[in-house]
Amino acid sequence: MSFQASIHINGYFENFFDKKSIDLFRDLALNGEALTTIVDDKSVESAGEAVTVGHADCRHPFMTLNLNRTICHFSNRLDVGMHFVKTGGFNGHIEYYERMVARIIPFRRRLVQKNYNSLINLKNLPEFNSVKFIDRVKEICADCYLFKKDPSSHKKSSILNEMFQLDLLLMLPGQELPMHLNVPYFWGADRNTLPQWLLVLMKKSKLFDHLFIPQVQGFSWLDLEQYTGVEPTEQYVDINGDGGDFYFYPYKEQLKKNPITNVEEVSKENANKYVILKQVANSAIVLDGAQVIHGVDRYRHYDIPPLFSHNHHYKIRFNKETNLWTLYDFQDNELRNYYKNDVKLMVVWNMHCFATEQEKIKFHSQTENITLDYVMNVFKEDLKKKDRLPTDDLEPLNLWTIVIKEYLSYPANTHQQSSTFFGINYCLLPNIVPKWISENFLQPFLEGRC
């Protein structure tokens, strides 16, 4: 499928994994080990905005409690949750806050992670070593700004890829993966040194692109029944059936000079144009997940998952004796059972792109980190140029609030099923207005609508 505008390169594969690989993933999913919810685990608690519980700043709309309920801070993926809850996501659903949160807490089992013992040997997965796959991944890497800027030292033929993460993801009926960007990596900065929401903002702002480390994400649907190949189909199709389809926004954001201010700004032209890729068992897509906004549409739209808390770990495991999935709360109490094929399972992976073997070695041996002060100053200087910075002496909470409003943007819910009011999920109002207004005026209106 071709576009006239500039787009990010991506790759689509049918019948991606062979039978042996699928059996391996299937066994890992069904062996009785638990998949746990992806909650707000953080290596870095704060970028200076955190305050102790009870502080007045805890009432800031971006603040939430940490897992230990000792501080208020920005949630790990503030960028994702804030957009989804506020707008209703890709399809513009309108629901109360608690239900919206439960929609976007999937389950995960990590199979491969850098610096940790892996549950799977990548050498046993020939798909990741095939010429076709490697060539496509290198094309995506070579399409990155950093490689294009200096093509003489970033030749496609010399690019090396290293997988640093491989997961099994599980969605319950009624859940979705909201539109998001993968957490980027920079020279001197990753999720172990800076909050994930800040790393995403650094990439969105394009102010740190000279430090960005290109990466490629892959995504494949896992069928839990007997493996069978499928005949080739139309690559890109519209949404249908039970949902659970992959969507992405392929158009590149481009810097254009504002004729009035004479300042370069990110152009939003084509920003809301998307592609939907039908869920087909064992099909796969690879793309630059740190730059291409993507997600998975709600699976079985009219089902309602349990009201999970984002501050607790829940888990689900398959019982071979009953042939059912059993869902447990954070205290190991059984909540619900699901039939084997009621859930949606996916294989997801992430790979770094390195120009040479020397660059790969340099990455793994780096010891110097970008400081938070450096990041703050870069944002401040850019905000000054745009006349968006009221003073140099802003507290971190106030600075990050301005930065989020200035640089964070996800596409509007443009799908035809949107039910929001001018793109806003009005069912959030009870969480915003005083209680007496909610009880006396809002509830009669919202009842039956949310």
Structural description of this entry:
With 450 residues, the chain is α+β, with helices and mostly antiparallel strands. Helices cover 23% and strands 22% of the residues. The protein is built from ten helices and 21 strands. The strands form five sheets. Strands 1-16-11-21-7-6-2-18-19-20 form a ten-stranded antiparallel beta sheet. It has a four-stranded antiparallel beta sheet with strand order 8-17-12-15. Strands 3-5-4 form a three-stranded antiparallel beta sheet, with no helix packed on it. Strand 19 (324-328) and strand 20 form a beta hairpin. The radius of gyration is 22 Å and the shape is globular. The two termini are 38 Å apart. Residues 227-240 have low confidence and may be disordered.
Largest sheet geometry: 10 strands, antiparallel
Number of continuous helical runs: 10
Structural class based on helices, strands and sheet pairing: alpha+beta
Helix content: 10-25%
Through-space gap between termini: 38 Å
Please give the oligomerization state of what you see. Answer: single chain
Spans of at least 5 consecutive residues whose pLDDT stays below 50 are 227-240
| Approximate strand percentage | 15-25%
> Residue-averaged pLDDT, rounded?
84
Report the strand count. 21
Backbone CA Rg: 22 Å
What gross morphology would you assign? globular
Trace the largest sheet across and list its strands: 1-16-11-21-7-6-2-18-19-20
